[in-house]
């Protein structure tokens, strides 16, 4: 038996999220279907660094699985991709130690959120960036960022549905990039709660639109109450960019 | 009655091409459906600069239509986009002279063809660029370009199904751009025959892969026979980029 670590990229548009759900097309079920075919009907369980929601994309999701197959390491990517649908791809495979775990060994993650800042419709961006045509006060957004960076209890920035007990996370960096008509938020941290990046973005949009003051961020954190933060930004602008080990 | 000229952008992935066909989803039928709604059930015929095939994209297709509606010019784009599906968008509207014709007044067109030069699968490019992972001799392709530029009978580079009589067209420029892992062909000319850009690209790929010599291009043109040129490159790498008037 050998453990493999794979980097996985997917267009989230036509997936009901990462995790297996009955009668839904999910990333995990497509990965496990491909592995089952490769293993002649044997079930192979896949473990990911974490879930992604319906519509959320991934450039660098990481998974691991165990296999008894003696496939040379360089052939795994081709073998798996030949069995996967074309909106889901393996973009890297390496042999891992038997103790490696995609979720528990993850030291941090990077997410990016793409906003398309235009009132002009672009059919090529409809699934890949959140179109937002209202004015945004970018300096106000930048003023808000330092209040969010660091170790905080992010209860206010977590879906109320979450069952995680400890909501303290460390956001190590938030960067705002402006590239032509795209505004890109880069978030890196040791872990992110359910919907956390989307609520951070929604809150920062609230700051940029003048609904929320930059200076109010510390209080929103202190309240530990989801209702004080901004809206949850749409899923289709979000990309799980990289997982760090 | 006022004639309107519109610039139209579409993701060709889910269209059976531009032109109306029975029981198929086409760009023209979606445009005419939207106009019919806006005109309370009145049929409004749309005329385009030319057809595009199933899977072919457009950044700058041009259409015209006539309307009795007194909608301010600045509101047309919003009104039409609110009635169009999100893979098809109006990106410009202007009032045109009564004699303007999107097809007959077109002086030239620009097409671009995107090739993704990698053996690594990319789920985000699957519908938007032709993945080609084999080696290509770029200098050989560049050597072939001057033979294709200029006024020629392009019968060899036209689908044998075409019913057009006069197959003489003038290609004013072919440019090859390399941007990271993308190879982009830019074609400008006074008109392009059915499948012509895709056969030009397929032939240039034949030159780059060593199947066709650069020096053979003049003979391929002279033969006036489709079987002498290369394959028809896949539709999903092709974009109607701009129409010149």
UniProtKB/TrEMBL annotation, chains A, B:
Catalytic activity line of the entry: uridine(38/39/40) in tRNA = pseudouridine(38/39/40) in tRNA
Residue numbers binding substrate: 111
Domain Pseudouridine synthase I TruA alpha/beta: from-to ranges: 7-105, 148-245
Active site: residue positions: 53
Keyword set, alphabetical order: Isomerase, tRNA processing
Cross-referenced Pfam families: PseudoU_synth_1
Family listed: Belongs to the tRNA pseudouridine synthase TruA family.
Name of this protein: tRNA pseudouridine synthase A
Protein source organism: Cytobacillus mangrovibacter
């Amino acid at each position: 038996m050998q453990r493999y670590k794979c980097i996985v990229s997917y267009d989230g548009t036509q997936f009901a999220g990462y995790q297996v759900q009955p009668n839904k097309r999910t990333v995990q079920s497509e990965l496990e279907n491909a592995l089952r075919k490769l293993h002649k009907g044997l079930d192979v369980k896949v473990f990911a660094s974490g879930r992604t929601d319906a519509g959320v994309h991934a450039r660098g999701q990481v998974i691991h699985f165990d296999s008894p197959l003696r496939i040379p390491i360089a052939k795994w990517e081709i073998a798996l991709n030949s069995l996967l649908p074309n909106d889901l791809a393996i973009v890297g495979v390496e042999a891992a130690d038997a103790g490696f775990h995609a979720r528990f060994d993850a030291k941090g993650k990077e997410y990016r959120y793409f906003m398309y800042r235009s009132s002009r419709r672009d059919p090529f961006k409809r699934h890949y960036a959140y179109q937002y045509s209202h004015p945004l006060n970018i300096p106000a957004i930048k003023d808000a960022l330092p209040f969010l960076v660091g170790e905080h209890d992010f209860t206010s920035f977590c879906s109320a549905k979450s069952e995680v007990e400890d909501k303290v996370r460390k956001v190590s960096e938030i960067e705002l990039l402006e590239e032509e008509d795209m505004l890109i938020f880069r978030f890196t941290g040791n872990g992110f709660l359910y919907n956390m990046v989307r609520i951070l973005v929604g809150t920062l949009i609230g700051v940029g639109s003048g609904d929320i003051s930059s200076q109010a961020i510390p209080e929103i954190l202190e309240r530990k109450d989801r209702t004080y933060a901004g809206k949850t930004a749409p899923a289709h602008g979000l990309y799980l960019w990289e997982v760090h080990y």
